[in-house]
Amino acid sequence: MGVAAQPASHVQVREILLRFLALSQRRCDTTRATGCRTHRRHQRTWPLAIIDPRNPACEESGALHDASVGGIAFLYRRSIDVGSIVRLRLFWSESDCPLVPAVVRHRTLTNDGFLIGCEYLISLED
């Protein structure tokens, strides 16, 4: 699937993030913020489209691991370098859904591929 050429505004991305988090909060298990985490995590399996910086013209599948107001973690078949900017389509079935930019903060090899932890590049905190 190709990637939309028209970039979304900050307002559109913020709206899609708020919608996504509202849905994930209603349909998931929640964990407290502990250790270095400042935000409560919402754990749920959910299909995502990932635009890997190594192949920016192509969307690939990933699966949500958890999400919070500050960021998102997903399972992906390949490693993505820490510091890379990825773009995420949080509602994969909506082809016109704005892409959410995020910076990779950590990656961990798992039995199912790589767990990629990202921080959104648009703040949701007021």
Q: Would you write up a description of this structure?
A:
The protein is mainly beta and 126 residues long. It has one helix at 10-26; strands spanning 29-31, 41-43, 47-51, 60-67, 71-76, 85-89, 100-110, 113-120. It has a six-stranded antiparallel barrel with strand order 3-4-5-8-7-6. It contains one helix and eight strands; from the N terminus they run αββββββββ. The chain starts with 9 loop residues before the first helix and ends in a 6-residue tail after the last strand. A hairpin with a 2-residue loop joins strand 7 and strand 8 (113-120). It is globular and about 35 Å long. The chain is 13% helix and 39% strand.
In short:
The chain has 126 residues and is mainly β. The protein is built from one helix and eight strands, in the order αββββββββ.
List keywords for this structure.
126 residues; 1 helix; 39% strand; mainly beta
